[in-house]
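Dear support,

I submitted the protein below through the web form. The confirmation email said the job was done, but the results page showed an empty box. After a refresh the structure appeared. I'm attaching both so you can tell me whether what I see now is the final result or a partial one.
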Amino acid sequence: MLPSLRALVALLLALACALPALARAQDLREPAGQTLTVWPNIPVIRAADLADYEADRKAFADLHADKADPAKITAALQAVDSLQAHHESRAVAELGRSLNAQLIGELDQLARQANLRAPRLRFDFADISPEQLQRPSAQDDLKARTARIALAGYITYTRLEGTLVQATATLVRLKSGASQSFTVTAPAPMLAQALARALFDYFEGTRFAPPRNPQPGLQWLTAAPGHTDQLVSRETAARWCQSQGADLPTAEELQMAEAAGFHGGGVALRPAGVYHVQSGLYDTAAALAGGGALRANYLASVPNGSYYCVRHGQPAQVVRAPRAPRH
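What the results page shows now:
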């Protein structure tokens, strides 16, 4: 590790002791429509050297920490710049600097193709010469830029078989420590394009409203702990559901829960699974093939299906206003 980087890491470790834990991943797109200025030096770090990577992560810890102090932000950006210089000489096929430049170029090209007049991401090259991009910035220069920089980023990568590379780009909001990471796997010549597409889609893509739970009155229960990943009989499944104050779902309830998905208030079904429902067996393979998903269960005592249970909520009671007494 370079002497200057070692000193910066020591400083950041001392600061980290008095700072809160790393911020969790948060939405970086707020406020909507606002242009976000990004620090143009994006360190590209090969993750194969785990010892060196661990030291780098300590430097990045201060970048993520919640600190609005301009002096601390300046120190963190200095560490980022120094990391770029440190790893550039060690990057495989000089991937680091070329990936930094290509990523910015690919984002510009995507913005032109989409005919965007004001892209959300803007890289701050004001008053920076090409030579300055090849070396860490001076502290006084960084202080002058801190006020207008919203995001800083870094990329870690590892080589896979052949020309494949897996890379993760992380963007950090400097004033809050909020972050988002984007991971892609692509041949080395296509890596910048793949990362740019992931970033562009996140910042420029349509922001869909979250779906509503289509069955808010239902509570879904998993199979009994002893029935995990095994087929049971319809009688066994129904008996466990009854013990939980629940029932086997109808085919319509299970189908709607599958459409809602595991993260939308529903359930996840195996692509080739068979599930007990009140009127028989729900066959997901048949549903995917375009046929009827429901088939009869003629042998209720044979272990031939998986299952979920469903508990029906009590319907809301209408509160009536008391009648006025008669005189």
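Response: this is the final, complete result; the empty box was a page-load delay. The two ends are 93 Å apart (CA to CA).
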